[in-house]
Amino acid sequence: MGRVEVYQGRQWTNLCTSKFEQEDATVVCRQLGYARARVLSSGIFGRSPYSGFTTDISCQGNENDILDCPHTIGKCKYSEYASVVCIKHNVTDDFQIYIDDVNSGEVRVSQYGIRGTVCQDGWDDNDAKVICHQNGYLNGQTFGTLKLLSQIDPIWLSNVECLGDEASIYDCSFSMNLTTQCSSNVQPAGVICYNGTGMDIRLVGGNLPSQGRVEVARDGVWGDNL
Q: What pLDDT is attached to residue 146?
């Protein structure tokens, strides 16, 4: 899994996503000794130290070398660098969805033995409730998770839409288009699961509704802190 670089003209070049499709990824992975390929979102593996560019690649899918495919020399931004995941012949397309840390954390998806994330766009409390039910909790809420830009994980799942009463996240509507450009890809979907009624907050003792002491309720009991 990674950014695709091509050696030609005595130098390494960056392969741009212009016209880069599944057939091209298949040739890349075959050349590297893998059976199958999936195209990932462009640019997720960051910048490259190389200044050359290979563009407009157009493979049929049966070539053994990427340079056997028609291509040109051009230029593109690092956000347009081609990215792929190569898959061994004995690896299935099955995937698992789980929470990073027992009852709270990032929502993780594991596929092809690679940990990925769920796009936070559209992820809401109904989705959080379902994955918490799936993990044995009565309730759940969504929350944003902090992620460093240097941490790179593919977006395996996006556009999750649950009603909130499903037994499993697998029963919800979702997309596994790995080329999804998630606008929140530095903040993957996160949840906190619990068995009570959850948490609420209020301001108390101020002269205006917008000021006062912060009180927090957990499972219906109010206090100054948790």
A: 54
Number of independent structural domains in the chain: 3
Residues 187 and 204 in one domain: no
Range of the domain at 124: 95-194
The Cα–Cα gap between 205 and 62 comes to 73
Alpha carbons 89 and 112: distance in angstroms, whole number:
11
73 and 153 both lie in a single domain:
no
For residues 25 and 38, the answer to whether their CB atoms sit within 8 Å is: yes
Tokens encoding 187: 């903040």
pTM: 0.68
Q: How far apart are CA 120 and CA 23, in angstroms?
A: 29
CA distance 173 to 169: 8
Q: How far is residue 74's CA from residue 145's CA, in Å, rounded to a whole number?
A: 38
